[in-house]
Fold:
Amino acid sequence: MSDFNIEEELKKLPGNPGVYIMHDAYDTIIYVGKAVNLKNRVRSYFRAGVYHTAKINKMISLIDHFEYIITDSELEALVLENNLIKEHSPKYNTLLKDDKTYPYIKVTVAEDYPRILFSRQMKKDKSRYFGPYTSAFAVKETIDLMNKLYQIRTCNRVIKEGETDISKRPCLNYHMKQCMAPCTGTVSKEEYRANVEKALDFLNGNYGEILKSLEARMQEASERLAFEEAAEIRELYYSVKSVAQKQKITDYEGEDKDYIGIASGEKDIAIQVFFVRTGKLIGREHFLFPDCAEDEKGDVLSSFLKQFYAGTPYVPSEIYVSEEIADHELIEEWLSKRKGRKVQIKVAQKGRKEKLLELAGKNAALVLSMDAEKIKREEAKTLGAVHEIEKLLGIPSIERMEAFDISNTSGFANVASMVVFEKGKPKKSDYRKFRMKTVTGPDDYACMKEALTRRFEHGLKLRSEQETDGESFVKFPDLLLMDGGRGQVNIAEEVLESLGIQVPVCGMVKDDNHRTRGIYYQNVELPIDTRSEGFKLITRVQDEAHRFAIEYHRSLRTKAQVHSVLDEIPGIGEKRRRALMKAFSSIDELKAADVSSIAALPEIPENVAKGIYEYLHREERNGQV
Structure:
């Protein structure tokens, strides 16, 4: 911005609270900050004699122009600063490079017959949530254990008291003693909820009663010489014991707290968070801040608190930190509004809390000494690889990449896959698959044209309607990757141009041995180092699109096979066919099932199950005659 006079603009700054935004000569946002007084804060960057770190001095040397937004309060400035940092990821802000979503255990207590579910989000839906936990595997294992212990239903049916059907056939879980089958009306709401209360007690960490109960049942089964039953109970006993042992008591007050330790290395800073829920350490997580060693630890902690708790659905009542934070009262006010009750940020001085903070700090130091290089290597494979692609193509910022692939067998069941990578990592929640509606026969170009047209037309429609639910379609990619070379790229550019959408498209150019030798972009073949992380990332995106397309095509072929065979069996209509196709993934799996397993489906009477079994095994019977 050649006509921007910094000295003159500094004189115009107001004394209000607000947010200031620094731009470089290319109009890229390089820093975002908040201020109680914009005039004093922004002018301090350009005042002689004011000490700044080498990093901030470098940032100041790159400032070409700045802008600012006035707010009514410092709290509003904090929220706006957070949003702008998240949106623009400025180079010179201390950035939390983390996109984890932590798992929760959700108990749908508002339902007449509650369920225990795995959840990545904590919503205000009258359910009870436990967590967050750091291991999705451990959460799923615990839910599975509770369903076995307390026979909680796992189905998605809406079951209301008084609307159950005693004539309904219970599902297989009931026969396996893993569900009380409330859908059939054989168990009262009170009896079922008594088991749910026991499950809630279990989730609150009270394991003693269930361990005693299982031990007594195991002993009783042994005395009856029911050794198989005793063995099953023993497995449950040890599973409960294993979960109980993982919950280490660390805080006898039994409240929810986070303990945040920090350690500084030669170049980087690491932060370790201990999650304590209802008095138990349920997990920990670490975060690395590269090239921040010169920054004040209190400033890094302040940036971390704002970015971390802006992105997590749960805020504990108390947060313990190892360093004083200048704006901790403002952050407390913001977090208290988010939580709906008072949140305190404290520096522990003595006792167990100080010991836990010290332990968190030691673990952060361990991250620096042992895990820093590993974390950097992982970052090189993701964000580093994205930056390589940006540099190769001359695109300033690539956050979201989409890739498409076609799969069919001689033109049968034409399908397309859409995979999404954000910040160099797969975003599977945004994956989509398409079954061709207009193309028959093996025509990959026509299939690609239909898939891309449907994808972007639907995105434009959602945008015009200001819908946000279909985010995978509403959000357009910063780069479109095509598996083929010039032909595929031309098809994509033709579709985008017809819809008035501007998205860069590049394709992979292959040699005679079908190995990628370069990138086709803007009518030019660009050579690419096949050993580079950028090349490896593009290959991973391609492979993922290919895998996703093939899996979808295979599932359609299998279902088509099941569908054609089921059509021949007497007594199988549309409803029963759907039930069988949902329960059994292939004809072989259905053939391997016995009559009782088939009849366990609510839609299949026993006489029909026998008919299915006999039809599928008719060749075996004919061979025996």
Remarks:
- The chain has a mean pLDDT of 81.
- The CA atoms of residues 30 and 442 lie 49 Å apart.
- The domain at 400-550 is CATH 3.30.420.340 (Nucleotidyltransferase; domain 5).
- The radius of gyration is 30 Å.
